[in-house]
């Protein structure tokens, strides 16, 4: 008997000593808050705020899993699909009755269930109390986890350890490992950020399957260790799986419900090149009236070394490149948005901004570009704003801003209608000075001017005619349209050859004035082209002194048409 006891003690000691990261002394429970959410759920951002506050108050004892599921998670046109194959089964066992909803350790809290009975799903006002109650309870099992990712091979390795300080009341438990992604920018109804809402703790995969791996030994003193490997795909539902944004949450449950406790970890990374920086994003550029822009780009350090300096080269429409020498401090996977100094260019109907970084370990991500258009143009200062509301007019608001972002006019307070249909509002007429304008329209619910009970719309007209492209209605939270009211010199007489060009005759030096990019071609008396100048803008000097004295035909053309003008060089 003494020998058997000694062997048993040695075996128990081996079990305890084998653990590397999990605590072996009794601990209180840690909270696993699963929040059921969706990009089209207007109150879900309020739920995110509450969950984040619970986490902030207990950073080492609370772990969040945001599960996009249900009708509010069904993507509309152009929206990302954040759903997973696991969400529906999880939410179906909760007794959910509305969104957002959340479960705290998949446990029933009497008086808090959304379905009023035995459901685990609770409305957001119950989450804090349930979390505080859970944290104060002792746990019979401790869980710990670490993770590493090889950035080159994209192989994730997760170590999970569990130690039973007491016996489980059920014969087997289920070990679950959730794989999450943070900082995914996308749309969110009710988030007041349009398509730029920052989605956090988003479930993308369950490494252990729908309900986890079954653990059959759950007696006091049991030590469990598991290592899981998983090749991370490039994307989930066409949404990029971003290195540096992942998170692991591991938890032990009594079957499919009642999570006992858990833990979380942020992966560490191997396989990084010493120096590797990428153009993460080139921000979109609105239609432009001016011939100067200050682009914004996002850079990310994919290298092992901290990034402190970086020359950024950029140009528009193949023009003269400009270099900005960025300085800062970016550790591995850190990102920063950089506003580049203004660059001048010739404004065309279609324009391209090009960005490039110096060559490094991966040159494939060292460039970026974005195209943008010239703003719609009108010479008429008599502007009409025409609004047709959907049933939920109270959700709609708009402003017309000038080039200084000063509101020229704002929407009245609209009201909802009593029945389905479309509801024209009184036209708003105004006279605008020459300038560049933004028409910004918002929908508080996030579904544009489409309530499902009739489609609303907006139009901005000049002298009764819709300004090209300045109309719509099918948008999400917000939409911006840019147009220019311009005094194009000579435009009113364009077809009668009265463009501003002087002096004429001259010694070969002419001045031409226009506010539209215009191509100029000079033809001699034999019909031969002898001079060409493209995309002149505003007031430009034409130097034709290289031509012989005589009569020439000047052809001028832009998007509004073409005219000819006889000129004489004396």
What is the fold's blueprint, element by element?
Blueprint: H1 2-18, E1 27-28, E2 31-37, H2 44-57, E3 62-68, H3 87-92, E4 101-104, H4 127-135, E5 138-139, E6 141-150, E7 155-164, E8 173-181, E9 184-186, E10 197-199, E11 202-206, E12 213-215, E13 223-231, E14 235-236, E15 239-240, E16 246-254, E17 257-265, E18 268-270, E19 277-282, E20 292-293, E21 296-301, E22 307-316, E23 322-330, E24 335-339, E25 343-344, E26 350-356, E27 367-373, E28 376-378, E29 382-389, E30 396-401, E31 407-410, E32 423-424, E33 428-431, E34 435-443, E35 457-462, E36 465-472, E37 478-485, E38 500-502, E39 509-523, E40 529-543, E41 550-558, E42 561-569
Parallel strand pairs: 2-3, 6-18, 28-37
Antiparallel strand pairs: 1-5, 2-4, 6-7, 7-13, 8-11, 8-12, 8-16, 9-10, 14-15, 16-17, 19-21, 20-25, 21-24, 22-23, 22-26, 26-27, 29-32, 29-33, 29-35, 30-31, 30-34, 34-37, 35-36, 38-39, 39-40, 39-41, 41-42
């Amino acid at each position: 008997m003494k020998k058997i006891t000694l062997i048993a003690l040695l075996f128990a000691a081996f079990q305890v000593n084998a653990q590397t990261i999990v605590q072996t002394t009794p601990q209180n429970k840690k909270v696993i808050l699963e929040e059921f959410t969706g990009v089209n759920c207007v109150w879900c951002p309020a739920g995110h705020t509450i969950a984040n506050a619970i986490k902030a108050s207990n950073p080492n004892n609370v772990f969040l899993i945001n599960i996009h599921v249900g009708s509010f998670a069904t993507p509309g046109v152009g929206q990302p699909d954040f759903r997973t194959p696991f969400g529906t089964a999880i939410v179906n066992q909760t007794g959910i009755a509305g969104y957002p909803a959340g479960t705290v350790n998949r446990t029933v809290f009497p008086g808090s269930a959304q379905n009023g009975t035995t459901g685990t799903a609770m409305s957001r006002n119950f989450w804090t109390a349930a979390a505080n109650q859970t944290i104060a309870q002792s746990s019979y099992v401790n869980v710990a986890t670490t993770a590493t990712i090889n950035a080159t091979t994209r192989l994730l390795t997760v170590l999970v350890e569990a130690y039973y300080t007491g016996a489980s009341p059920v014969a087997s438990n289920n070990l679950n490992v959730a794989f999450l992604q943070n900082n995914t920018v996308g749309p969110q109804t009710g988030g007041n950020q349009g398509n730029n809402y920052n989605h956090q703790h988003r479930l993308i995969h369950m490494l252990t399957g729908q309900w986890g791996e079954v653990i059959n030994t759950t007696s006091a003193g049991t030590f469990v260790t598991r290592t899981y490997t998983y090749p991370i795909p490039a994307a989930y539902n066409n949404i990029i799986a971003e290195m540096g944004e992942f998170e692991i949450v591991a938890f032990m449950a009594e079957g499919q419900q009642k999570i006992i406790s858990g833990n979380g970890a942020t992966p560490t990374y191997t396989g990084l090149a010493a120096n590797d920086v990428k153009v993460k994003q080139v921000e979109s550029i609105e239609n432009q009236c001016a011939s100067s822009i200050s682009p914004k780009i996002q850079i990310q350090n994919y290298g092992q070394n901290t990034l402190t300096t970086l020359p950024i080269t950029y140009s528009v429409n193949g023009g003269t490149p400009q270099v900005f020498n960025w300085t800062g401090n970016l550790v591995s996977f850190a990102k920063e948005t950089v506003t580049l100094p203004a660059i001048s260019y010739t404004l065309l109907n279609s324009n391209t901004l090009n960005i490039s970084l110096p060559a490094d370990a991966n040159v494939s991500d060292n460039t970026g570009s974005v195209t943008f258009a010239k703003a719609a143009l009108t010479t008429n200062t008599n502007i009409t704003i025409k609004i047709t509301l959907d049933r939920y007019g109270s959700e709609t608001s708009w402003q017309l801003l000038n080039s200084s972002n000063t509101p020229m006019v704002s929407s009245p307070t609209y009201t909802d209608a009593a029945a389905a249909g479309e509801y024209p509002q009184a036209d708003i007429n105004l006279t605008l000075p020459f300038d560049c304008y933004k028409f910004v329209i918002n929908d508080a619910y996030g579904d544009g001017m489409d309530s499902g009970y009739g489609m609303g719309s907006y139009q901005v007209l000049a002298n009764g005619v819709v300004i090209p492209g300045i109309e719509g209605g099918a948008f999400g939270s917000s939409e911006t349209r840019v147009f220019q009211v311009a005094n194009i010199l000579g435009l009113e007489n364009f077809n009668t050859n009265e463009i501003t060009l002087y002096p004429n005759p001259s010694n070969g030096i002419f001045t031409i004035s226009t506010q539209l990019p215009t191509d100029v071609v000079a033809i001699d008396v034999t019909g031969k082209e002898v001079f060409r100048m493209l995309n002149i803008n505003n007031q430009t000097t034409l130097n034709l002194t290289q031509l012989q004295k005589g009569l020439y035909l000047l052809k001028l053309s832009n998007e509004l048409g073409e005219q000819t003008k006889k000129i004489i060089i004396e």
